[in-house]
Amino acid sequence: MRFVRWCVHANMRFMSDEQAAIHLASLNVCGLPSRLLSVAERAAYFCRRIDESDIDVVNLQEVWGRRTLEVIRARLPSFPFLAWRRGVAGQPAGGLVTFSRLPVGAVTYTSFRGARPAAAGVRFRAKLAINSLLQGVLTVELAGLGAVVANTHLTANRDGDWTAAGRYHAFQRTQVGMLHAVLRRARTGGSSLVMVAGDFNIASDSSLYPLIVDGGAWRDPFAATDPATFHVEFLPPGASGRRIDYLLVCGDAATFPVTGNGLLFDEPFTLSGGRRIYLSDHVALTARIGLPPPE
To answer: pLDDT, tens digit, for every residue of 20-37?
Structure first.
């Protein structure tokens, strides 16, 4: 184990002479039909930016098909390790894929099967039950580091109402509870550091935020700045942008300090002909988490 741990550290980006760090990123690539160019067209640009960066692990959501997965994989040649689980139609389960420059170990996927809204009409309840069946959380061990990365995508709140009286409230509370059940198993399974990232589809100013951070068990590197992570241009007129994507860290703060965070794709991208496009309807979150020196 000590030899494996040393080899992994040898490939890390060092923050200083003493401490290495994991540079983690998360992006919902908008894999459903939208006003954006197709994922395949946009991947040429967002993958290049990621591949040329010093990001170690990137969690992608809404990779809904094998063809989309292969297009993205071909454009991330410096990420040799790929984690996903096969869905019922051969697609990445939950649309979740994690690319890594670091060796990965065990990979598991848990769906949000069984989460159902308790209120509203039959059609609404049936639609959300199906969505919940198709969504979930992917957990990936980083070999030799005693660390786990979780990648998740919760069901969208189409009403944009995150109040306790909203018809999505109890349903989303159930999904967050199911997510934390998976994360608690990871935290008690011998991992000193657990990171979770993804599209929670829950606004950071909602009453569910304390549940998202599990009463403070999880550190939120973006709590102070609270950036909107869904471009307002894709919202109904008059709506305001909110943070609905998260990148959270659980582990001893002195041993695994969060040393920096940032955004990617928060501005339109300019094509060679001068046209400006968004590379996703979401903004990517990034964070650096320090690691202890190798033994």
So the answer is: 899 999 999 999 888 999
Residue type (1 letter), 231: H
Task: Round to whole Å and give the CA distance between 65 and 79.
Answer: 19
If you ran DSSP here, which 8-state letter would residue 218 be given?
A: S
Distance CA 266, CA 185 (A): 34
CATH number at residue 67: 3.60.10.10
- Name the H helices within 117-168: 122-134
Q: Cα–Cα distance between 109 and 258 in angstroms, integer? A: 26
35-65 pLDDT, tens digit each: 999 999 999 999 999 999 999 999 999 999 9
Number of other residues whose CB lies within 10 A of the CB of residue 261: 18
Please list, in sequence order, all residues whose beta carbon lies within 8 angstroms of the beta carbon of residue 11, skipping any fewer than 6 positions away: 101, 102
User: Where in the sequence is the domain holding 13, given as residue range(s)?
Assistant: 2-291
pLDDT tens digits along 118-156: 777 888 888 888 888 899 999 999 998 999 999 999 999
Q: Tell me if 20 sits within 8 A of 142, measured CB to CB.
A: no
> Contact at 8 Å (CB) between 282 and 254?
no
Q: Name residue 183's amino acid.
A: L
| Number of domains the chain contains | 1
